[in-house]
């Protein structure tokens, strides 16, 4: 019997639009059924036992609870008989506690009838006692006190169950029926309950229209009550709806109010709302109640609720576009009866609400659900398919906000859209557009089939305020993701607040980087000065910044800009916490345990899987960049241990791999790069390239062929440089053709590379043009000479520090005393080093933030050891940081220095150390002597 | 060659009237069909008050004697307005034309204003009228009148915004009258104001700077000293930033200035980096030439670019200025540029070579063998080049330029003793 009722509901209502919860209801019902069935089974068993004359009952936990409860009811009855209010009060408290337990055990939202009946009984008795003034006077003081407090408590308590109590009163028959059975068949109580409903249901429903039936049945008891209240459409007035609405809203958040139930009630109310404004007001409550469905921060909103919520938002927008005079505002408290004004009211109507905030919340829930769902399941994909749904909503909200001139909120909404699109390359973007179209088609198909039940409900109770679907339900996507981004981003730049702008800027950078527009992307980074300010922003923005930098690094690599790529990525890898920095998983730290609190926080900021940047690829790119820069650098400075290190990470890895006794075939990315590094440092470009090529991450690049080709050329070039550094001392002269064939480069390329090395004085050689040979000059210093240079260097450092010490003491002097020529030369070095440290600054975002800035400052002081550079570099840095605002102060020099700082610096210091102490300019003088003089 | 023409990119940053010289130049060079240019001229004139001129052009464009009705109407309108403005400004103008009265003016602006209103009944309205009148004069093409009035207006004006725009007007007028010295003065004044003024947004400031730089092109490439000044102005951090952000095409002029200006080595290195960085946003034979010589060390490429540069210079309204001597016209800048560019290539080339074949060198320098030899001999004689010519094999041999290790060591330590002495004497002073 039980199943009949529920099945009935389940069968006929599956298509029902409002029946999103019904599945859950079904679930609960099934559970109840099970239990009911179980107890029935048990009961029958006990029946057979009965026939044996022995009463041996096996009870489930649930039954036990019920038994306890009924025992308490008995106690209460006894107390009533002797008019003992003190014990009655105790019993009342007890029964309330038991109620909780029962509810927990049965997992239902429904309050057992037993409890309600007890309440009714109590209330009656109380009224009786209050009425009987004489008896009251005779009571002992403690008894009278208990009576009074009981009165209060009961009043408060009963309010929650008002409806149920009323119903219970209306059906004294069942009560009477049950009364006798109760004592004997406690364990059947619950089942009985259900049975009663079934019994009652048809009786109640019969007088009503048949059409109404399915709809009504679906609602639970309270709704049915409401239904009764609003049975006759003609009798429904604004006041009744308003009253009911206030009542329901007041119940929100109170203990014992089912959240889902609340949603349903309110949804029902939207149907009967009299004016558009009222409907709107109620809809807003529905939405905010829907947000409450999932309590706590960790979980996410059930997906069907989410969908429903989106639909409600669309409905809200429909109303708002239809009735332009309704304003949504969350700053002013609207008048009590503001919503009474009908559709024909011409003035403005203010309703409390905040569309942008709602939208943001919906987005957050969407994001959370993607965080929680296991990415390898179908569910995840299904969930991703809801993206267009959200997108259309955001689009509509934004349009509406723009239309009413609230650009600030529109910018916020636009940011949400940007954050939905920015990480998508064109292909994925196209796919999303296609998906949205598909979904649209399916949708229309579905609505057709789902038309019928909808019609039913509308026939059953036509909504008073009919809103046509004015707002488009289909997202429009510009052909190009870039176009979309541009539109949104420019809106944000114009109206957004600081954070919104910064985030939009980062998304913009990311997107440009994805589309292989390195220079635009880089200019945006530099123009926005985000690298300076990002440390003061919230963590999720910092993560976004890291992501953007990672993507920028990949983009630079694809474009063949190795130094830039390395600059972008090296900082991410410095601490070995890439995963954490990109919020793509948690990395365990060996040194300090995280508290659960931290862990939870971290989990909450994780990126959903589909937004991840492939870590293997990132590592490969980073290490390859480092290799290309570091290997020639190591070769150039092999004699000098304290030479500048470009990539600490690579150096460390190299050390580790060199310590191994046997090196096996490469397995992971690191092994591959290490193998390549070993080959490259011998100048064996072919092997190095082959090893790198065998990495399977390359398939992740769109134009894999081009990237590999670029890489091949780069490896060849660096192999050539490494070779020259390493073996130049063994040659007296070397033919260009031979060199070109050796490294499979064209003559022009080889010539250009070698010339560059000569100019920068990395290589002491010059061309012999007629014979196409390079002649090596023997400029290697003897041990003694080298030591002498070191000594002079140290002396000048000493003098420098002396000067500084005096300067600090007595002021003045200092650098003025430097001879002009020397200062000139230093200026370059300082510029270069300033560039270097600035770049360092640029990239120190992640480090500084994580509180491990020790490395950075350490580095800077390390640089300061150079002869007399500190003062200059400081000046220089300050100078170029001074200028510029948000969008204009394009610090070109800054980047400038950085881009070349990397290489330029090493050359610079290299020449100084060798003691030649003449940079390019001094050499150039030789031609210009006449001019200068 | 039209693809290297910068006029479309420069014009939006100029005053209408300043575009005329550019169009004139283009017409002369014949890069575009004449009719097109004439049409643009008319369009340009439509918003000015030089209606008569527009009519003339119209006639020559369509070879008719008829003039469109709206032009005739506009002419009437302009004349009427001119009359009205003249009347409004009349009292002040008569005052200013009276030399005696003008002598009464003092440096103190307040005093002047008071004096004017008390003795000559000239109030703010008249002063405002003077501004309008000057502007109108400028629109009509009477630049000298406009310049005079604006000068006097600035002496009397108290509104700084107005004063600034009067200054712009004055600069334009001076440029159009080709008074380069005066224009230079105005330019400097304007620059100071722009640098010190508080703009509502940084963007406005950048825009002002970009305008200033564009306008200054007229001056710098006509003024004798302009080529140093252009570097001074453009290479300032703020201005360079503005160029990189919004007007990378100006790099051409800066690059040219650097090439013809040998004494700017330190800044030059930085500039090369800028050029390299801006490669993606602006490419031009001149900047490419620099990239070839100083970044890629591609001397063949540099040589090709050099030829292109020549074309570019000839077709550029600012760079390709002609000087006519008797019946023989030259473009001085081109010759200078080529000479210097050659030197650039040669210089770099020599630095990385030990021995160079003269024939190859001649080819690289765009000279014939004899000329090349003479050129090199000259360089050696003026001791710009440490080299010897081996005439038997036809090669130039560079002297090794590696400084002696001991010299270096001495160089290093030489300063130390001086510094130490100074330090000690400072300490002694302090101790006393």
TrEMBL record, chain A:
It comes from Escallonia herrerae. Residues 1-63, 162-214, 437-456, 809-896 are annotated as: Disordered. It comes from the Eukaryota. The keyword Protein biosynthesis applies. Its main location: cytoplasm. Residues 609-781 form the PCI domain. Belongs to the eIF-3 subunit C family. Keywords: Cytoplasm, Initiation factor, Protein biosynthesis. Pfam families: eIF-3c_N, EIF3CL_C, PCI. SUPFAM superfamilies: Winged helix' DNA-binding domain. One of its GO terms (cellular component) is eukaryotic 43S preinitiation complex. This is Eukaryotic translation initiation factor 3 subunit C. Component of the eukaryotic translation initiation factor 3 (eIF-3) complex. It is found in: Cytoplasm.
Automatic annotation (TrEMBL), chain B:
The keyword Mitochondrion does not apply. GO terms for cellular component: eukaryotic translation initiation factor 3 complex. GO terms for molecular function: translation initiation factor activity. Residues 219-403 form the PCI domain. InterPro entries: eIF3e, eIF3e_N, PCI_dom, WH_DNA-bd_sf. Pfam families: eIF3_N, EIF3E_C, PCI. The keyword Oxidoreductase does not apply. Gene3D superfamilies: 1.25.40.570. Keywords: Cytoplasm, Initiation factor, Protein biosynthesis. HAMAP family: eIF3e. This is PCI domain-containing protein. It comes from Escallonia herrerae. The lineage of its organism: Eukaryota, Viridiplantae, Streptophyta, Embryophyta, Tracheophyta.
